[in-house]
Amino acid sequence: MPSNDVRILAQAAVPTAAVGAVAAVVSGVVAGGKGAIGAGVATLVVILFMGIGLYVLQRTAKSLPHLFQAMGLMLYAAQILLLFVFLAAFKNTTLFHPKAFALTLVVGTLTWIAAQTRAHMKSKILYVEPDSGTKSEKSGHSS
Question: What is the largest CA-CA distance in the chain?
Fold first, then answer.
């Protein structure tokens, strides 16, 4: 992964992990140990799903740049659907507190999206790769 991609990943994952830690503490106080476990699992799910999505999107941008925007829209729609499926699958679980899990999942996802948006807006990514010279300079013609 190029350094810009790693920087964006870190700038999105760190705030999400911090929000997840706060959610785990709050859930632990409100719902006990199962609440803390639910918040921790939700944080891991968000970081995993969104991190994989960012990786896939960056690979698509490099290999198929003409599909980048469509791929981004499809990817976010698929991620949201997968998170809903995950919520539905663990709706009645006894492994952890489902409400703490669901709330942390939503808050973590919103945090990731906001942090990733901020990271993209602050990064200085070149839209066009700079070239060492123009075509006329390379071929020996001057204008």
Answer: 75
